[in-house]
# Entry
Amino acid sequence: MIFVFRPVSLWQRLALLLVFDLAGIGTLRAQYEKYEGKTVRVIQFDPVKQPLEPDELHQMLPLKIGEPLRRETVRDSIARLFATGRYADIQVDVASYQEGVVVRFLTKESWFVGSVGISGRVSEPPGAPQLANAARLDLGQPFQQEELAQAQSNLRRLFERNGLFRAKVNSTLDWNTGKDYQQVNIRFDVESGPRARFTTPVITGDPKMDARRILSATAFRRWLIHSWKPMTETRLREGLNGVRSLYLKDHRLEARVTSEGVSYDIETNAAQPTLHIDAGPRIDVRTIGGKVSQRTLQRYVPIFEEHAVDHDLLVEGARNLRDYFQSVGYFDAEVEFKEQNVINDRSTIDYLVNRGDRHKLVHIEITGNRYFTEQQLRERMFLRPAYFLEFPHGRYSESLLRRDEESISNLYRQNGFRDVQVTHRVADNFANKPEQIAVYIQVAEGPQYFIATLAVQGIQSLDEKEVHSKLTSVGGQPFSEFSVAVDRDTILEQYFKAGFPGATFEWSSKPAPDDPFHVDLVYVVHEGTRQFVRQVIYSGNRTTKSWLIDHALGLNPGDPLSPTEVTETQRKLYDLGVFSRVDAAIQDPDGETDQKYILYDLEEARRYSLAVGVGAEIAQIGGCSTCLDAPAGQTGFSPRVSATISRNNLWGLAHSVSLRTSASTLEQQALGTYTWPRFGNNPNLNLTITGLAENSKDIRTFSYRRYEGSLQLSQRISKATTFFYRYTYRAVAIDEKTLKISPFLIPLLSQPVKLGLTSFALVQDHRDDPLEPHKGYYSSVDLGLAERAFGSERDLFRFLGRNASYYSLGPKVVLARSTEFGNIYAFHAGTDQLDAVPLPERFFGGGSTSHRGFPEEQAGPRDLETGFPLGGTAELFNQTELRFPLIGENIGAVLFHDMGNSYASLSDVSFRIHQRNLTDFDYMVHAVGMGLRYKTPVGPLRLDLAYSLNPPRFFGFNGTEQELLNAGTKPCTPGEPYASLCVQTGVSHFQFFFSIGQTF
# Structure
């Protein structure tokens, strides 16, 4: 005898069970009654392999072997199985067996949505991700066959909204890949077909405007050749917005522009939108009594943005305008509005402004505060007294004042002052000056409430001591609902991590019996059912190796099902750098079972990418490559283009290779890079192999060609600390035709040099914000050794260290300093270190990031005949900046002092500030200046103007290269034929730099 239950929805399940329970099923019920009360000898499942483990099945069933068979028990067993969500159909068969009965559950599994993919010929837009989302088949949710037709319909509508009216959509279901875990992968095979083009739209309603102007505003047609654009959903939406903007410019603020659909002509492949337009009257918005630009009105009066005129929006506009006038010093401003009736298709809204006298907020005083200092309260306030150019009249408005009062009140309440009261008083005629005002804030703290006792009830599965150790509310501490909310999140987070997704939290408090300002606090935790990971399933990795993904998984079968760890694993998969999308879900999250499948649906990113950029440099960048008349550089312009092509996820291992090329009038470069992340399966190790070919003129003394290969292993020790281990081999050759120094030095300095350098670097970054640091420090040390054993033709040791620190002197004032020191020591060099170090390997300091008293790469020793820089083997630079706001929130300024130089050798490093003669360059050069900073999302735009207090002077040869050759060894010796071509020159006192990002 078989009992059949095939419910589709929960309500159908309940209805069938109710009918079975109350009314019976006729003959079936009568037959069942002969088995009622007999002992259950065997419980079987057909098929034998069930979605749930046998132990789990028998544990959850109310029906037990050895107990009497009861109708209610069978009903409850069926309901319990359906509640797991793993079954689509259940039949119960009862038969006699060994003076009892055998009960067989004949089951049919449910299926759940797995990967949803798009294949075929798709003309974007829409793209594949947009199509997959439009299907509305969510990962891990129960799959119903009828949902597939709806999904296909959704895709067709999306295609039609983008002008693809002939799109074809078919679906393929892959049941086999999810056979073990009831997951069906769905693939939609699409062919988007040709895209329709716009044609002249149909305009209905009351447009009150020439149709040609409306058509032009839609931008459906190209402005020059007047051909119709292909239809897309974005273009249609932008067309509607263009028409709305047209009516807004015509002061028709209540204009309604909507789309009533698009008709398609299959013969011409044309899409004709229908636009319904109700223009409404012209509405002029004016201010009387206070001059306000139209742009300011549109910013503060919301009727422009909402395209609607109602009382609430007008009131909000009046309030915003009042705050605007108060923010520019009219602290007594009052704003009201008056609407005029519509006459001859025109209406007027007048904002009546009574600005009052202009004031300046010069003083803010807080009294009554004992628990917090005035500085602690001021840090949370928006009000600001007048300050130079940033806030010439101070920052004040009634809304800001209310916000500050609320902020101070919240701070006190968070620390146990439940009855705190914050009031204010605004006083005119401060310091006997009528235009100056002061704001006095009075704090009535009231009593502070403390926790007498804390009891946490309901903790059974977690370590109670560990839970208590993470709470902020403990006996003797201030009591506040804010702390209770923090504790609630802390406790629930621990339970979520431990696999209790249904855990709940309640709390209560009552006055302590001995002290009215102490409370007894009680937390009650309801743990709920604990869930575990049955298996982690991922799909969509067509190229990426499975073992690479397995190493990124933070969840394993049997682990507690932690939503936090699910999200963390999702982040780790993104960090592999090979997936453009990682969707995470729990299969059948509502099913009542403690073993869950965790699903990750992956979409691999494009393996090839191309990036192109253009830029330019404007600075003291020197003259031509063969001229001798600009040893200290001269203002110039250098355009620059770059292109980078990358191939990602090589061999499915997340390796990548890229080629970056750049070209300018100063430099041509090609850089090839091979990256092996997570080297040796260690997430903290990255291996990089690079090859570089460069032709550079960026050092004015010479042009050079460099060929370089390097092998680098980076090791991340912590969030702030990284080690770099590197071997570099490079060959540098100087173009003798461009060497602007004495010809007699050419054999020594222009010969090709091959250098094999093994180096170690350490970087520590403890800044609070790398783009705009306010506190912390940044340190780096680079040690390198070039030796014949490493394939080097020169033996030298190289050290370069840098330390920068940042100190906050107030809410927005930062003192920043940076010190850089370097030295190159040549082995077997005799007594002259400078001659022993190849010219391209020397320190060429100076410029926007090291010393703004010099043009780029112009610090240090120079050639005594031509004046061009030779570089040094040691360098010492120190930069100090005071950064502060200047105008508003986005424009800041800096005052800076730079000091230092590049020196011939370590023994020549000196703090001397005077140049002894025109051949002395080993002294400390100082420069002062100021700069402007403009905030952008990628860092501040920077303009620095520097004045060098003691720039170097030197001889420069003002002749040609042939005249320099003819001059021999003494071109600047008095009495020599070419001595008149030697002129005394030097680095300019004034320098300027324009770039992006802070100096350091």
About this structure: The CA atoms of residues 41 and 138 lie 42 Å apart. The chain has 20 helices and 41 strands. The domain at 360-444 is CATH 3.10.20.310 (Ubiquitin-like (UB roll)).
